[in-house]
């Protein structure tokens, strides 16, 4: 699977599928301005828009009666255990049905030499925030386990398939999700940075390095750092990077808390946080945003990609699916209630912009004033 391919110019889903409907069953509104052939030669020839729902956020999230009801059901231990198992089963079987060899990918990591990376990656004096030590994503040790690390890549690919259900392949779905996100970042930086180059990039919550690899390929001359709280995830990132990357300046992996990185002020031009904040309590989100402001140079860009409360698809999720989703994501309600744009402004960011970059995700970008 070419997860490090820099194919983000191919950022259209539906023209590739040969449809020309305006509104599709998955709620995505597609404006086709060109054919696939035109798209490969010029990314600006195609425009894809994703439809917003009528609410500010889904009824199943936040503090609504429905959300409380789901919360109460989930908090009942025997039900939680069943849901946890169910969520995991649904995830794996859906992935495999869609061409993601989940168990094979996991086996390859678990039977590799990845374990050797841990010693060079782990910061033994790091103190984990409380929320990070709770069971999470159906793993009792949360992200602090080899199993979670080995399953991170197939889980991420499955997320892309859910976000782009019409894609012809898992690879195409991934290219759409990542391509639109990168496009939003490049556009924002071009418009608001005052012409400054992206020389240093920090990927906060880099997990096993998938987002980091995309950023590195998009900005080939930049120095790229991936930072995460899980030394197991970082071990997989470093292991994969050694195998796959041909970069002259290898990606640097740092085991640290994104809330307080210890890195020098004004040392980055781009701070990216993708698919992390829905896994964090609001106080961690606020701290990471403040820390990013400190770390970025004037004109620097912060880019946050995550679930979009305004997404029509998420607002219309079936009760079975949203209950399964909530059963393994303990901070989802807080995430949906967090005013991300307001938090960015409060931290000092300007030019705050939000765009739906696929049927389920938004990319929020903002700049440090000059
Ligand atoms: C879903 S993963 C991110 C995936 C990746 N950025 C991507 O786009 O594919 C969320 C990551 O955030 C990390 N994380 C959570 N809280 C963190 C914190 N305070 N500091 C650094 N990393 C954190 C987790 O360990 C996990 O690897």
SSE blueprint:
Layout: H1 14-17, H2 36-41, H3 65-75, H4 77-97, H5 102-110, H6 118-121, H7 146-163, H8 170-192, E1 200-204, H9 210-218, E2 223-228, H10 231-244, E3 252-255, E4 268-274, H11 282-295, E5 296-307, H12 312-315, H13 319-327, H14 332-337, H15 340-347, E6 350-356, E7 361-367
Parallel strand pairs: 1-2, 1-4, 2-3, 4-5
Antiparallel strand pairs: 5-7, 6-7
Helix pairs in contact: 4-7, 4-13, 5-7, 7-8, 7-10
What are the salient characteristics of this protein?
7-stranded mixed sheet; 370 residues; 13% strand; binds S-adenosylmethionine; disordered N terminus; globular; 43% helix; 15 helices
In short:
It contains 15 helices and seven strands. The protein is an alpha/beta fold. The protein has a domain at 169-312 and 339-367: Vaccinia Virus protein VP39 (Rossmann fold, 3-Layer(aba) Sandwich), CATH 3.40.50.150.
Explain this structure:
Helices cover 43% and strands 13% of the residues. By secondary structure, the protein is α/β, with parallel strands linked by helices. The termini are far apart. The chain has a domain of 173 residues: 3-Layer(aba) Sandwich (Rossmann fold), CATH 3.40.50.150. The N terminus is likely disordered. A seven-stranded mixed beta sheet has the order 3-2-1-4-5-7-6, with helices on both faces. The chain has 15 helices and seven strands. Bound molecules: S-adenosylmethionine. S-adenosylmethionine binds next to α9 and β2.
């Amino acid at each position: 699977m070419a997860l490090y391919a820099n194919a983000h110019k191919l950022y259209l889903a539906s023209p590739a599928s040969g449809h020309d409907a305006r509104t599709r069953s998955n709620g995505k509104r597609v404006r086709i301005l060109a054919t696939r052939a035109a798209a490969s030669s010029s990314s600006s020839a195609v425009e894809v828009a994703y439809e917003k729902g009528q609410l500010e956020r889904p009824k199943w999230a936040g503090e609504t009666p429905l959300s409380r009801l789901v919360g109460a059901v989930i908090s009942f231990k025997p039900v939680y255990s069943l849901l946890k198992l169910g969520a995991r089963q649904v995830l794996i079987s859906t992935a495999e049905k869609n061409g993601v060899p989940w168990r094979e990918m996991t086996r390859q990591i678990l039977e590799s030499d990845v374990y050797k990376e841990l010693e060079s990656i782990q910061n033994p004096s790091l103190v984990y925030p409380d929320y990070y030590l709770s069971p999470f994503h159906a793993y009792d040790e949360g992200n602090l386990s080899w199993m979670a690390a080995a399953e991170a890549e197939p889980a991420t690919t499955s997320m892309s398939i859910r976000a782009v259900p019409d894609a012809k392949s898992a690879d195409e779905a991934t290219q759409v999700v990542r391509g639109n996100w990168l496009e939003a970042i490049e556009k924002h930086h071009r418009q608001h940075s005052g012409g400054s180059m992206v020389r240093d990039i920090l990927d906060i919550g880099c997990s096993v390095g998938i987002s980091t690899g995309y950023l590195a390929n998009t900005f080939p001359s930049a120095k790229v750092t991936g930072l995460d709280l899980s030394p197991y995830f970082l071990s997989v990132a470093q292991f994969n990077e050694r195998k796959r990357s041909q970069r002259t300046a290898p990606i640097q992996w740092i085991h640290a808390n994104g809330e307080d990185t210890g890195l020098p002020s004004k040392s980055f031009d781009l701070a990216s946080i993708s698919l992390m904040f829905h896994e964090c309590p609001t106080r961690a989100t606020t701290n990471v945003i403040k820390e990013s402001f400190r770390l970025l140079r004037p004109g620097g860009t912060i880019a946050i990609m995550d679930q979009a409360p305004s997404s029509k698809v998420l607002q219309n999720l079936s009760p079975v699916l949203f209950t399964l989703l909530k059963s393994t994501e303990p901070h989802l309600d807080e995430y949906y209630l967090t005013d991300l744009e307001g938090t960015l402004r409060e931290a000092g960011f300007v030019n705050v912009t939000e765009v739906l970059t696929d049927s389920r995700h938004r990319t929020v970008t903002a700049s440090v004033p000059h």
